[in-house]
Write a structure and sequence with these properties.
Two copies of one chain form a homodimer.
Chain A (H helix, E strand, L loop, with lengths): L2 H6 L4 E3 L1 H9 L5 E6 L7 H15 L3 E6 L1 H6 L5 H18 L6 E5 L7 H13 L2 H6 L13 H15 L4 E5 L3 H10 L10 E4 L26 H9 L16 H10 L6 E3 L9 E3 L2 H10 L4 H27 L1
Parallel strand pairs in A: 2-3, 2-5, 3-4, 5-6
Antiparallel strand pairs in A: 1-6, 7-8
Helix pairs in contact in A: 5-13, 6-8, 8-9, 10-13, 11-13
Chain lengths: 326, 326
């Protein structure tokens, strides 16, 4: 696979192609980041990004995971000490999942976000960014009554993080794209360089294929699911025999194969008794999706294989989590 | 004069009376503040506030003058070092004008506004204050296109200053009232006490009596005016023989007597040749205003006296300024 393809596969958006192509010329030692508010248990959303980070490490890049303890503190997630304990569990799960420890730096927001230079730069950006522009970057559509001042300040801090962490590339879900566009427009106004960004896809709700899989609503898959729980969740997933269901619906089983399983395994074997045709072996997502559409691969068999591969991916992190809690 | 009257005379608004009455019971050692972006030359706006501060010192209070160097820095007023030089000139002029050096503390914003605790508290307030509420506190009506993110953050910093400077009372012009109302509503949400506030009046434009006297437009009187300049400016002032001119107009000559001269002098003598009735002596503003309205005091004579008293008030600061520049 060529380097640009490795960097950009399974992304929904590349901002902008020229800059990422230039990065692909010499990715060795270049720094890419993702930021999270510390969470005790990783879910598929984290792991989808982690798959992308693993691709980038394979290309030679260094990964920076920002553990946003300042924001967690402000959101009443505990004392800084408690939040650091949560963040340490997060770190252990990422490494167990497959991030290369030698090429992964975990940084706390409090390491630099409360220092004078950073604070002055936040104020500089507040002064150079119109309120209208910042409102357009707010993470979700906030009505006038519920939007807080923090909703227009946090995007500016995210922009500055990209400068202060000395990055060459940023990664985020599609829900981060407005913040990253603000970063690209506003950083140059205070003398810093805009950085390219890759946006990872949003996986559809597992049970309905409608909207997005969320850690707060509906069924999610997390690092603490047992093999049995995984099997149960995947078995009740929405999986019509097509990659393009009616209306706005998606096929979440295919999405999980595409974004979670194939990037991590050379081949996928769907086990079947000989009487039903015997095992099927796929070397690419395309082949599996084609067979599901043609009827060659039954949704129930696809689900069985998916649950088993997800379990294999999750098992090391699940073990670490249970050791840390023991 | 009773203490409550001394604390509140020549103010346009007391927020709220009960709290200031309680302060008046035991004002000794209580702390009051005013904040300014450092300016090299004081003008009448500064001095009107200073008159109020002198009243409060007379009642036993300690004055804190916040020299907002961080904001000046962000507004491109120079390096921190250059801004401190400007601020030192400001300090010298305030002391020359009559603030009691023993009871006046000059504090730089950079002494605490870039520290971790303060920065965290700014973020707490950003999180607890709705964008709508903060927009209502913006210093001036900003259109959607010109308002910056800083316009919703600065009022929160002003609120926190009142906590961090450990104050019992805040002072500001009427243009600060929205910010102070925000302070009273929002500080308790993050566990701090709201403080009472006194708002000083706005003096009308000197030449027209319309709108407000401004340091950026129209004629202003400043600490560097010579006796001749003062005389010239006051002589061309709007001064109809009434304290209540038509429409929205004000009589700025009477306002200057009321807010600038009478608070600082036991009596005011208007010198007149014997052939025009000889000197007039006033022990109160009311007496002088009554005579102007009745025709007993001619506007031209009132202006002559005003220029002379303003010169007496300004002379010490003017001298200090010229020494510092020599």
């Amino acid at each position: 696979m060529d380097t640009y393809e490795l960097l950009t596969r399974n992304t929904d958006e590349v901002v902008v192609e020229d800059e990422v192509r230039e990065l692909a010329q010499d990715p060795d030692g270049k720094r890419v980041y993702v930021g999270y508010e510390p969470s005790g248990v990783l879910h598929l959303g984290h792991l989808l990004t982690a798959n992308k980070l693993i691709d980038l490490q394979e290309a030679g890049m260094e990964v920076v995971v920002l553990l946003a303890d300042v924001h967690a503190y402000l959101n009443d997630k505990g004392t800084f000490e408690e939040i650091r304990e949560t963040a340490e569990r997060m770190r252990a799960q990422f490494l167990a999942y497959g991030l290369d420890e030698e090429r992964t730096e975990f940084v706390y927001g409090s390491d630099y976000q409360l220092e004078e230079d950073y604070t002055l730069d936040v104020h500089e950006l507040e002064l150079s960014t119109t309120l209208n522009r910042a409102q357009r970057a707010m993470a979700e559509i906030q009505s006038g009554e519920t939007a807080k001042v923090s909703h227009v300040v946090y995007p500016l801090m995210q922009a500055l993080d990209i400068e202060y962490l000395d990055l060459d590339l940023a990664i985020g879900g599609m829900d981060q794209r407005k913040v990253h566009m603000l970063m690209r427009e506003e950083l140059p106004d205070i003398g810093y360089e805009a950085r390219p960004v890759l946006h990872t896809p949003i996986v559809a709700d597992l049970t309905t294929g409608d909207g997005k899989m969320s850690s707060s609503e509906g069924v999610t898959i997390s690092m603490e699911d047992s093999a049995e729980e995984l099997e149960e969740k995947v078995n009740s997933a929405f999986c019509p025999p097509t990659r393009d269901p009616e209306g706005d619906l998606e096929n979440p089983v295919l999405e999980l194969f595409e974004y979670h399983v194939f990037p991590r395994f050379e081949e996928v074997v769907v086990e079947r008794p000989d009487e039903y045709g015997g095992d099927l072996t796929y070397e690419s997502y395309e082949m599996l999706a084609t067979d599901l559409e043609s009827g060659e691969l039954h949704p129930a068999d696809a689900k069985g294989a998916l649950a088993s591969y997800l379990d294999e991916l999750i098992a090391p992190g699940r073990d670490v989590l249970s050791e840390m809690r023991a």
